[in-house]
Design brief:
6 helices, 7-stranded mixed β-sheet, alpha/beta, FAD/NAD(P)-binding domain, 23% helix
């Protein structure tokens, strides 16, 4: 039996994808959301204090409200991974890992970004054995122990502050001499007496026997090496777009981000993109959500112009 022809398939179920779904539904479009991780990166945030209407809310709670809103409109959120997209005469064929394929007349790409790897010895070997990319998910496992957080941006400081309430000592390792986070986060970090900043330090190896027992650092200036005894390493070194299936399908920049215009249109007609996967410079929940709304409205205008 041939797959139903949908108006829009949204690839991604983070803030951008879920907001796009709401706007598509309100425009009367038949839509399917396909996402690997509900809520995306936003769901991992221990605290969100800059989303209007909420003075304080966890990422999981906020994304749960997004989900409830989407499902109240009768939209199904499919937990699956898109592995390929093809176009045949103005119709897009979206292939998934295990749910088959979907056909649609317009496409919204909201695939988000995933954690960057350090690429050092021991990182893959100890993944899940002390190496983690989500402090909120795995932090409680290391209550009362020594941990390291790698990074100097907002996500790294957010993780370090969160972990300071659980761990004995939190080492914040950053390759530069100053942190790149919001001043409010820096002030909060500085108020924690069990956080030790290791600036101008580059991680070069993670080791132990069955589980993480230490991380080796190298001074960026002198080259001197230092060993920290830790039970966990939380990697918060930024995010990258992992959209290999998009190469040759839409234009990407040198970082692999999707090139879009002010209306969230990509280089391919009928394909729109929103959120952290695009060239939009500020990676924030509210900006991703706003992009999702724009992408959905642009998709509606595109489909309206094409006729029934």
């Amino acid at each position: 039996m041939a797959a139903e022809l949908l108006d829009v398939v949204i690839v991604g179920s983070g803030p951008a994808g879920l907001t796009a779904a709401i706007y598509c539904a309100r425009s009367g479009l038949k839509v399917q959301v396909i996402g690997k991780t509900l809520g995306g990166q936003a769901a991992e945030a221990s605290t969100i204090e800059n989303y209007p209407g909420f003075k304080h809310i966890t990422g999981i709670e906020l994304m749960e409200r997004f989900r409830e809103h989407v499902e109240s409109l009768g939209i199904n959120i499919l937990n699956d991974e898109v592995v390929g997209i093809e176009e045949f005469g103005g119709v897009f064929l979206v292939k998934t890992s295990w749910s088959g394929h979907f056909k649609c007349r317009a496409l919204i790409l909201a695939i988000g970004a995933e954690p960057k790897k350090l690429g050092i010895k021991g990182e893959e070997e100890f993944r899940g054995k002390g190496v983690s990319y989500c402090a909120v998910c795995d932090g409680p496992l290391f209550r009362g122990r020594n941990v390291a957080v790698i990074g100097g941006g907002n996500s790294a400081l957010d993780a370090a502050v969160y972990l300071s309430a659980l761990a004995k000592t939190v080492y914040l390792v950053h390759r530069r001499g100053e942190l790149r986070a919001a001043q409010s986060l820096i002030e909060r970090l500085n108020s924690r007496n069990n956080v030790v900043k290791k600036l101008n330090k580059v991680p070069i190896e993670i080791g132990g026997e069955r589980f993480v027992e230490w991380i080796k650092l190298k001074d960026a200036s002198s080259g001197a090496e230092e060993l920290l005894n830790v039970n966990a390493v939380f990697v918060e070194a930024g995010r990258e777009v992992r959209g290999n299936f998009l190469k040759g399908f839409v234009a990407l920049d040198d970082k692999g981000q999707i090139v879009v215009d002010a209306l969230c249109r990509t280089s391919r007609e009928g394909v729109f993109a929103a959120g952290d996967a695009t060239i939009t410079p500020y990676k924030q929940v509210i900006i991703a959500a706003g992009d999702g709304a724009k992408a959905a409205l642009s998709a509606y205008e595109y489909l309206k112009g094409r006729g029934p």
